[in-house]
Specification:
Layout: H1 3-27, H2 35-51, E1 75-77, E2 86-88, H3 91-104, E3 111-117, E4 120-127, E5 130-136, E6 142-144, H4 147-150, E7 166-173, H5 176-184, H6 193-201, H7 206-209, E8 215-223, H8 233-243, E9 252-255, H9 258-267, E10 273-276, H10 280-290, E11 298-305, H11 308-314, E12 324-328, E13 333-345, E14 350-362, E15 365-371, H12 375-381, E16 388-394, E17 398-406, E18 429-431, E19 434-436, H13 443-454, H14 466-474, H15 489-493, H16 500-513, H17 518-524, H18 532-540, H19 546-555, H20 558-562, H21 569-580, H22 582-593, E20 616-620, H23 630-638, E21 642-643, E22 653-656, H24 662-670, E23 673-676, H25 677-693
The structure holds 2-(butylsulfanyl)adenosine.
């Protein structure tokens, strides 16, 4: 045996020992050696690996301490569907769901009740028993690869007890005790363990993640077909435990009789509580009341059908399995009182009523403002100031008033939108369901318009922030967007905080903005509902100058625009009517005089050879040169192709990146041509070269 071989043998020996010790310590809570002995072995392995990086194993126990290299969380496609859970907020809802499941089954079902850990959802992918990837839930189809950070979590097995391929789902969390300890030391403390856990999982350096003692519970396993024939969820849990995963022991099983439940648990050699169906209501109540005494935070409970066959029969929606239901502690509904209703004036002059309510906690955050949209919405609710209302967070995000629960005692009648603008007192106009201030010089509109015009996605004039805009308006140096290009800088320099440096940076940013292409100028005009996508569509369809658009405006030709993809009747009307407005025409004329581009510069964006005409491309996996991968599809579209998000019989090409999963299989089945990144780049390259020969715009491609 030469020296290298000897070292490799030592690496294997130490790794095996450390693995056994780690499992005994972290999973079984039963240490086999002293800390000193453990550290001695560990340090020896670190030394060998440092001096001989080629000997470092994929699942080396040293990975637990992480690395100082930056990771940038590549996007990867899940190979299992990462679904969410349907939610219930009362015991009654849970019972009625259980009964519904039961009616669909031919035999007596058993249900498993688990804690819903309030942490970060993760999928761990193992190949031949080795942890290959840890991927965040992401959008359920694509997540971020956070493997290096997850490897530092002590109770994530890097190697399983069997050399199998398996994907498991679990929740990474931080105990309350550790949270208190760590959070105290942070300059910017986190609001709760969950947020700190999420931050840790996304640290750039895994050595930083390794400093926070995160934990994991695994709750579902996805084995390769025919590998095992599991009959039940608890069989799967038992197998996962045997493979070395940490399973939450506080599970409860509900069967026809207590005896039956006990048998099931014994058969699976799992701890947990055995109950009969009638006890489920009591158990939910008990766990709700005692949750504060747990070592970690839970935000609910999960009830799951135990029988795998029945699970498959019940099936799935695109969002959740029909065989599981979350019982959430935090109701997304709350009661509050409407203290007042304020009117907000937007850049388009639209008046939006906003209810100021007594602050309430809803689904984990405090809500004090709720939009009421328009008069029609208020009328439907018959809402008056002082009313007690039920407030919800729709889709768990946007608060909304659901209904009036109790009318106010002051005899306030249903709220009516003001007849004049609360900012400039101009009489309002009603268009459809909405109320507008028709005065284009209403201060709020002007401010909103300026803020929108200079924003990053429009003219990108970053030295003109909201504070500077306020000063410009206060000093009467600008009345509208075009005035930005004729600011009296001498007057501005008299203002505190506007020294030479600041003024010079404003001047140069404004000058630079004159180079922005027409597409940005058009977007920056703020035509309602006309963002980048619509503007690109207009340009692509030949409306690449303001004059061409005016031709349509003059003829009131709504129809031509409606024939363009993505442009519906309403958008067409918005474009034509907004551009027809006199103030808007004057504004555009002034902007043109100031030197802004009023036609798309064909020299800057040479028309690429339309090599993908009539082709329909989908994309899967992740790419070195296109992150996010939609950039690749943009290249397809620029060359005449169409892009789609899923594969169908109409799809002609699949661009396949690293980690592409189910789409690849589908593409193969449908005979869709599969193109990998290198080939794709060379396809683009052929006209990239051509472009360089003409006037290649730097940075356009990548
Ligand atoms: S089952 C198809 N079980 O809750 C399986 N989820 O939207 C669906 N969660 O973020 C999930 N504890 O990570 C399940 N015991 C448990 C869970 C659990 C926490 C999380 C999950 C996801 C959310 C469900």
């Amino acid at each position: 045996m030469n020296n290298k071989e000897k070292l490799l043998k030592e690496v294997h020996d130490i790794s095996n020992k450390l693995r056994t010790f780690q499992k005994a310590y972290y999973i079984d809570s039963n240490p086999l050696v002293s800390d000193m002995e453990y550290d001695r072995l560990f340090d020896r392995l670190v030394t060998i690996e440092r001096e001989n990086p080629e000997l470092k194993l994929d699942d080396s126990p040293t990975q637990r301490v992480g690395s100082d290299l930056d990771s940038d969380f590549e996007e990867v496609e899940h190979t299992i569907p990462v679904l969410s859970l349907d939610k219930a907020y009362s015991g009654e809802e849970i019972i009625s769901w259980i009964n519904k499941c039961q009616t669909k089954a031919t035999s007596n079902l058993n249900f498993v009740l688990e804690q819903k850990i309030d942490g970060i959802s993760i999928v761990l992918y193992y190949e031949k028993g080795i942890l290959k990837r840890a991927v965040t839930r992401g959008n359920g189809a694509i997540g971020n690869d956070v493997t290096n950070n997850v490897r530092t979590i002590k109770d994530v097995p890097l190697r399983l007890t069997e050399e199998i391929n398996v994907a498991v789902r679990g929740e990474i969390y931080l105990s309350k005790k550790e949270f208190e300890k760590v959070n105290k030391t942070l300059e910017q403390p986190f609001a709760n363990p969950r947020n700190l856990c999420a931050g840790t999982i996304r640290r750039k350096k895994s050595s930083e993640s390794a400093k926070i003692p995160l934990n994991i519970f695994i709750y579902e396993g996805f084995f390769e077909k025919d590998e095992y024939n599991f009959n039940s969820h608890i069989d799967i849990l038992a197998k996962l435990k045997q493979l070395g995963f940490r399973i939450n022991p506080s599970l409860a099983i509900f069967s026809k009789t207590k005896q039956k439940a006990k048998e099931l648990l014994t058969l699976a050699s799992l701890k947990g509580s055995a109950n009969e169906f009638d006890e489920i209501y009591e158990e939910i109540k008990k766990q709700t009341e005692t949750r504060d005494s747990l070592e970690y935070e839970i935000d609910g409970l999960v009830v799951k059908v135990n029988e795998i066959e029945v699970r498959e029969a019940l099936g799935y929606t695109v969002h959740h399995p029909r065989w599981a239901m979350a019982y959430k502690f935090e109701s997304p509904f709350s009661q509050s009182v409407v203290e007042s209703i304020d009117i907000q004036v937007g850049r388009t002059g639209r008046l939006t009523p906003v209810a100021r309510i007594t602050p309430v906690e809803i689904g984990g955050s405090t809500v004090s403002n709720v939009t009421l949209h328009n008069q029609q919405y208020i009328d439907e609710l018959e809402l008056a100031i002082g009313d007690s209302v039920e407030v919800s967070k729709r889709g768990d995000v946007i608060p909304a008033v659901e209904q009036v629960i109790e009318k106010n005692e002051d005899n306030n009648t249903t709220y009516k939108m003001p007849s004049s603008c609360p900012i400039c007192s101009t009489e309002v106009e009603i268009k459809g369901a909405h109320t507008f201030c028709p005065n284009p010089y209403c201060p709020k509109q002007v401010f909103g318009r300026l803020e929108f015009f200079v924003a990053k996605s429009q003219m990108d004039i970053d030295s003109l922030g909201p504070k500077t805009i306020e000063v410009l308006l206060k000093l009467d140096l600008v009345k509208d967007v075009q005035d930005l290009y004729n600011i009296d800088f001498e007057k501005l320099s008299e203002e505190k905080g506007f020294g030479e440096k600041k003024i010079n940076s404003i001047i140069s940013a404004l000058e630079k903005s004159k180079e922005q292409p027409f597409s940005r100028v058009l977007t920056s005009l703020g035509i309602p509902e006309v963002g980048k996508k619509i503007v690109d569509m207009l340009i692509k369809n030949g409306f690449d100058s303001i004059d061409k658009l005016y031709e349509l405006v003059d003829k009131k030709d709504y129809e031509t625009l409606c024939n363009i993809p993505l442009i519906a009747e309403k958008t067409s009307k918005n474009i034509i009517d907004t551009l027809d407005d006199k103030t808007m025409r004057d504004r555009i004329a002034s902007l043109k005089n100031c030197g802004l581009n009023m036609e798309e510069n064909v020299v800057n964006t040479p028309k690429l050879e339309q090599i993908f005409t009539d082709q329909v491309w989908a994309v899967t996996g992740s790419f070195k040169s296109f992150n996010p991968r939609t950039l690749a599809l943009e290249e397809v579209e620029k060359r005449g192709g169409r892009s789609v998000s899923s594969i169908s019989s109409k799809t002609t090409h699949l661009l396949l990146g690293k980690g592409g999963g189910s789409k690849k299989t589908k593409a193969e089945a449908l005979g869709v041509k599969i193109v990998e990144e290198e080939e794709f780049l060379s396809l683009l390259g052929s006209d990239k070269k051509k472009k360089e020969e003409t006037t290649f715009q730097q940075g356009e491609l990548f």
